[in-house]
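Reading group handout, session on sequence-to-structure problems. Before we discuss, look at one worked example. The prompt was deliberately terse, the way you'd type it at a terminal:

> structure Protease

The input record follows.
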Amino acid sequence: MTDGWNWRQPGGAPAPAGPPSPAPHAETGRDAGSPWWSDALADPWRDPYAPAAVVVRPPEAPATAPEPVTDPDASSSRGMLPIVMISVFAALLAGSLGGALGYAFAVRSGVGGGTVLGSTDNEAPAVAQRPPDSLAGVAEKVAPSVVTVRAPSAGGLSVGSGFVATEDGYVITNDHVVEGTSGPATIVFNDGSTASGSVVGHDPESDIAVIKVSRPNLVPVQFGDSDAIAVGDPVLAFGSPLALANTVTAGIVSALDRTIQSGEPGGQMRYYAAIQTDAAVNQGNSGGPLVDGAGRVIGVNSVIKSLAADEEQAGNIGLAFAIPINQAKRVAQDIIDTGKARRTVIGATVAERSPGGGVRLAAVDAGGPAAAAGLKIGDVLTRLDGRPLEQGTDLIALVRKYAPGSVVTVEYRRGSAKQTASVTLAADAK
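And the output record:
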């Protein structure tokens, strides 16, 4: 191995023959023709035999520095640069933050590309299970028993409601729904199917009628006890208001024994000791069931109060009245059994309202219930079974509520004395 300064053939062998080397340098004795020594004299670091010396040069005169040039915009540019950088950084930060928040809200809201709506499992959604005593549960239970009644008459087509009372096809509705019927009624069921129905009988004064249809697999309603309900109890009204079939509305019992007189002047008068409700009832609901929170029928929707003078323009204002089911069921049973209903009477005729309150007896039927209880003409009846009597309609409506044979307590005044009598009500002779 050699460093290139003095190379020899390994083993001391002479170098191969070749062209003659240049003469050695006069001062160093080195080969001046060698590329290693061609500039050795000028490079003291190349030749270790070259003499070393430190040369000190005299200082040169400093060159005159050029006059500095000032950029008039340089200072303002350097002053604005930090502001621009801060603005850009703030914009980038705000954009990044806004994008992150937007994405987060989109993910939480289920919006955005790639978002899967609903469950990711393969199971079918569970069917909602509603308790039987919920409003929806009651509606589902009662709806198959509710019908729409279309009764032809000389004046056109009367549309009302009704409900199935027996498995063999008896349907209860209002008398005024089938009043003047000129042929069979069409009964429309909850599923849209229809059947022809014939009127078995009706009682104009109680406003109850019975229709018979021939159809298998009918589902009758469950009857409740209208004497067991209280103000504030929840109720549902079923029917076809304004011909809108399968309608259900909800409310409460607003009042009990609300005495109602309905009918056109000179025509048939009807009397009710009614259940008042704020459930929405309109024309077409007539004859439909009013049910309690357990789905039991407690009344037959019959009358509404309205501010409209024209009955055709009347609409719901939260004042609707239903015939108590205990009375309606009794009347319907009489119609089914005998073709007509018995009317409950007290055997007396009432005069105008007494100035001191109560109703005065203008006549007492000989041998009738009132006479048998010792009541006389001129007696002022003030209460019937604890319910106040303010006008003649109150006495008639309350008496109609009871079945023949019922015993009621009557409070009355005879002169200045207050007395009490027990009256056994009876059926009229008609």
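Points for discussion. First: The first helix runs from residue 74 to 109. Second: Residues 82 and 411 are 101 Å apart (CA to CA).
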